[in-house]
Amino acid sequence: MFDTVAVVGATGAVGTIILELLETRNFPAKNYRLLASARSAGQPRTIAGQTITIEELTHDCFEGIDLLIASTPDDTAAEYLPSAVKAGVKVIDESGFWRMNPEVALVVPEINPEAALNADGIIASPNCSTTQMVLAMKPLHDAARVKRVVVSTYQATSGAGLQGNTDLQQGTQAALDGGSYDYQAFSHPIAFNAIPQIGSLKEAGYTSEEMKMVYETRKIFGDDSIMVCPTCVRIPVANCHSESILVETEQPVSVEQARELFEQTPGITVVDDLPSGSYPMPSTCDGSDDVFIGRIRKDLSCENGLAFWCVSDNLRKGAATNAVQIAELLAQHQQ
After folding, report:
1. What is the pTM assigned to this prediction?
2. How far is CA 220 from each of CA 62, 125, 134, 226, 310, rounded to the nearest angstrom?
């Protein structure tokens, strides 16, 4: 059991779910502290029967904390988390800043738990779109080694934060009313639209969100030879990311074998009955901690290829749940 666990960003969308999960999953902690910006400091929150006043995040606020779960913007993580490590705190970070640092573990507990257990200082949780994809890849990679992945994402507006969903709601209402709306989170209207750019322009015409999927996948599996071709698209759905995934493996895997492998993997739920119209959708996966897989079929263009559809709640397994699962893993192996 940890004596004192702190959560940074407790008032945000992901931070709120982290608090909920720590309570509902009966996380082994005696005490909690909540940290946030000066704007949120002083607000009360309740967790595990404790009413806690949020403290301001400063460089000197980490004394006495054993474990810190942080859900903050990249610049906040860059500035403050080294101070937590210096104070001897084990840190789980949701931001994108530390993920590709070679000295930082990048962890999905079902895939590489040893990376978290062997880590010093900061442990990073992957990008939400990466997390659900690599969990879906895991059983196929173990059975037949994945050589190549072609993935198209259909990402919810909640992935852009609270403002993303505000843009969706108010932009849609304005479009229905025949009016205009000044979008804040998106550079184009999201209402009745699909935006094939998430993040900034990076190399070879790919965006930062797409390259995260390339580099993070390789780091999590410890295999730089895995080829990933991603296209990331924002769509007018409030929550849950969907992905169309095609994998090519070294050894053949039949549809039946793949379905069995998926069904045997903790954290994956198979919903796959096309004749009855049963498959994962954001509307049915919202609020769940699992990764849902359906539309499993042979790739008609590749001898050792499989295609499938994957949906997951990006605020939960894509963010909050993965972080709490890392914390649970550390708690189970405490000295």
Report:
1. 0.96
2. 29, 10, 8, 11, 19
